[in-house]
Structure formats: structure tokens, C-alpha cells
Design a protein that fits this description.
Blueprint: E1 10-15, E2 26-31, H1 38-51, H2 55-59, E3 68-70, E4 78-80, H3 82-100, H4 104-107, H5 116-143, H6 153-169, H7 176-188, H8 195-202, H9 210-254
Antiparallel strand pairs: 1-2, 3-4
Amino acid sequence: MLSPVTDSSLSSTFVQPPGAPQHVCIQLMPIQLTRHNYLLWKSLFIPILKTYDMLNLAEGIEQCPSQFLTSTSDGEDKKEDPAYTNWIKRDQMFLTWINASLSARLLRYTRECTSGRALWLHLENLLAKNAACHVLGLKARLQNLDKRRYCRMKDYLDSAKQIADELEAAGSPVEDCELVSSILEGLLLQPKHYDDLVASIRTRSKPVTLQELHGLLLGHIIHCSKETKKFAILCSFLLMIVLVSSLFLLYKLLHR
């Protein structure tokens, strides 16, 4: 079973493109392939293959030609076909590119793949379904945000932002408006605390950005804090009045 991969840091993968001078190298992949970012990795890798005419290798359209040319009818005088040699070089370059973009943990599962096409298919079978399930799980978490699980607003917003970042890393970025909508839905699960604020935000003609929402929520919390303090002061004042009145009545009863 594939072990969970936690290394999602950026990497610098350098390879030599076919036909390029020896001293020239280009940075092809800004990320390493892990268990959870296959969709993003593939979307970045395919344009590279198109640029260097190698997509047909990945798709299996360009098959390996026969190794030898025959110059006689009986086929005894064999000579290696240059097309075969060129295909092998390109295929091994393709294989090298893929291996150079894999995380260390994934390399353990690819050692038996000796051609670029074989490794390409192996990674698809190994990771595509898992990556899709990972994205679905993250989207479910986003749709089920609940402010009641967090004491502080900052923790709630950080949780939503973390899910959005993970979706982007998985190759399925979330639109700002979708993220804001999920956050607002989670606020409504805390009865009466944010109903008016959410209603006012949703009736705006211009969609609220995540940064604007953060400011509005901060302002709402400050306002509620002030109102709470005012209410506490009022309650203390009323309690004092009741206490003084009770003492006064008690004094009158004792001195009749």
C-alpha cells in the first residue's frame, strides 16, 4: 500500500532537452509529484511534453520501431535502424524527466518501470483515483465548514484558507466567491450570531473578496465586543440598584 506523502515543498527539477546544447538546461517542473497533487503535476507536465514532441510517447501513439533494418531477402544482414536508436533516446529522456520530478517516496514504487510510457501509466493507475478522492474529500470539508467548532474567528478562517490551499495544490483551485460562500454558510450554523452580517453581505451588488470578508468579520467582532461590554455594565448597574433597594427595604423592616 502506498504510504502517505507529506512532502509538498517546491523543488527545482533540471533536465536537458533533446537536441539542446550540453551547457543549456531548463527548469521544467516547479513542484515534485506527491500522492495528492497528481492532477496539478500532470497539468504542468503535458505542456512540456508537447513542447518537445513527446506527448505521443506518453499516449502510446508513437510506438517503438523495429530494432534492425534488413538489407537482404533472407534477413541475414541486419543493421540497427536509426529510428529505433532515436526512439530509445527520446523514451529514456521522457523516463528521466518523470523520475526527476518524483518525490523520494514515490521513487520506491517506480523502479521496475523501464520506459517512459510504462512509468506514465503506472503513475496514473497509482495516483489518479487517489488524487480525485482527495479533491472530493477537501471539497466536502469546505462545504461542511462550521464556526461552532472554533472558539476564535481567526482559527475558523485559517481552516477555510488551508482547505483552499490544499485544493489548489491538488490541481483543483477554488474561486474566491465559492470560498466566501462556504465561510458564510458555516457562520449561519451559529444561531443569531452572524445572521444580520451574512444577510447584508449577500445583498451586496458586488461580490465580497476573502480579504474584505476578513475585515467585515473583524469589525463585527469588535462591535459585538463593545455591545457585550455595554450590556455587562448595564447589568452591573441594575444589579447594584436591586441590591441597594433590597438593603433599604431590609433597613426599614428592622427599624419599624
